Amino acid sequence: MEAHVIECPSPMGPFWMQARDDALVAAGWRRLSGAGPVPLLEEAAGQVAAYFDGRLTRFDLPCRVEVGGIVPQVCALMQAIPFGQTRTYGDLARDLSKPAQAIGQACGRNPIPLIIPCHRVLGASGLGGFSAAGGVETKVALLRIEGAAGLLI
C-alpha cells in the first residue's frame, strides 16, 4: 500500500510522520516522502500538537515497527514508559536479557521517535544518545516538556 505523509510544526522544527496500511511506520525531524495526509495522519498531527502544548501525555496511535532484530521488542518497552518518567538502557537490557549496548543501538533505530518515546531512555550515568535532529539537546527539550528535567540535574 502507498505511504502517506504529513508535516507538522514542533519546537524543534518540522516533524514528519508517515503512515502505511492504517499505522504509523516512520516519524522524525527529517523529510519523509509519500502521498498527502490521510485521517490517521491528521489525528497524529493533532496529537503531536497537543503534546507540545502540554495537553497530551500519552499518544494513542497505531504504530508498526518495520525494522528487524530486537528493535520491535525495545520499541514495545519504550511505549510502556509513562510520560515524565525514564528508564535506563540497562533496565531495558535486563527486561530482554540483552546487553545494554544492543538496547542503545535498537533505541537509535527507533523509526517512530517521539510517538515511541526513545527520549525517555537514559544511560546509567548520563543522558545517552539521541538520533533525532538536534541530538541530545532535543532529548533534553522533550524531557523538559514532560517535567522530567529534574532528573537531569
From TrEMBL:
What GO MF terms are annotated? Answer: methylated-DNA-[protein]-cysteine S-methyltransferase activity
A Pfam family in this protein?
A: DNA_binding_1
Cross-referenced Gene3D superfamilies:
Methylated DNA-protein cysteine methyltransferase domain (3.30.160.70), Winged helix-like DNA-binding domain superfamily/Winged helix DNA-binding domain (1.10.10.10)
Q: Does the keyword DNA damage apply?
A: yes
Q: Which domain of life is it from?
A: Bacteria
According to the entry, every stretch annotated as the Methylated-DNA-[protein]-cysteine S-methyltransferase DNA binding domain falls at 73-148
Q: Which GO terms describe its biological process?
A: DNA repair; methylation
InterPro entries named in the record: MethylDNA_cys_MeTrfase_AS, MethylDNA_cys_MeTrfase_DNA-bd, MethylDNA_cys_MeTrfase_DNAb, MGMT_N_sf, WH-like_DNA-bd_sf
Entry keywords, A to Z: DNA damage, DNA repair, Methyltransferase, Transferase
Q: Which reaction does it catalyse?
A: a 4-O-methyl-thymidine in DNA + L-cysteinyl-[protein] = a thymidine in DNA + S-methyl-L-cysteinyl-[protein]; a 6-O-methyl-2'-deoxyguanosine in DNA + L-cysteinyl-[protein] = S-methyl-L-cysteinyl-[protein] + a 2'-deoxyguanosine in DNA
PANTHER family in alphabetical order? METHYLATED-DNA--PROTEIN-CYSTEINE METHYLTRANSFERASE
This one is known as Methylated-DNA-[protein]-cysteine S-methyltransferase
Question: What is the source species?
Answer: Pseudooceanicola nitratireducens
